[in-house]
Amino acid sequence: MGGRRLRTDTLGMSEAIGVAVLIGLTITVTAMVGMSVLVFEDVDEGGPRANFTYDHVENSGLLIVTHARGDELQAGNIEFQGPGNNATWAELANRNETALVGPGDITQLGSGNAYGQSVQRGDQVEIYLNRSGNRTKLSEWDG
User: Fold this and answer.
1) CATH topology for 50-142?
2) What are phi and psi for residue 64, nearest 5 degrees?
3) pLDDT tens digits for the chain (143 residues)?
4) What is the pTM of this model?
5) What DSSP element (H or E) covers 68?
6) Are strands 87-88 and 100-101 parallel, antiparallel or unpaired?
7) What does the domain layout of the chain look like in residue ranges?
8) Contact criterion met (CB below 8 Å) for 86 and 76
9) Cβ neighbour number for residue 119 with a 10 Å cutoff
């Protein structure tokens, strides 16, 4: 019976090495993730934050826009872009350009104001903040 037999002390040693390697990999990966969180912290660039709600009055062709929450922004810097004329919040709401628009403020887009066209289902209206030529998209309505 000339079969080969494995030594039991060799088998135990290979399992111990395997466990040690797995523990080492786990510690290394955890350390790398921890370092990336500490080193590459999410930097807040102080960008504008504002949420808007939309109510479309189809039979009148109006889109009523409400500043729901977020930062107060100057009315002359909030721009609406869509199929109609591009217009600022100040033009649409007949307000001073430096007036602040904050939560609860309302304006409307339609044919009877600076937007100059009724808003239809299927139109797309985008809201931008324009600070000295730097435009940041704040919100979008897809009819």
Assistant:
1) Immunoglobulin-like (2.60.40)
2) -95, 125
3) 556 665 555 555 677 777 777 888 888 888 777 766 666 554 445 678 899 999 999 999 999 999 999 999 999 999 999 998 899 999 999 999 999 999 999 999 999 899 999 999 999 999 999 988 889 999 999 98
4) 0.66
5) strand 62-70
6) unpaired
7) 1-43, 50-142
8) no
9) 27
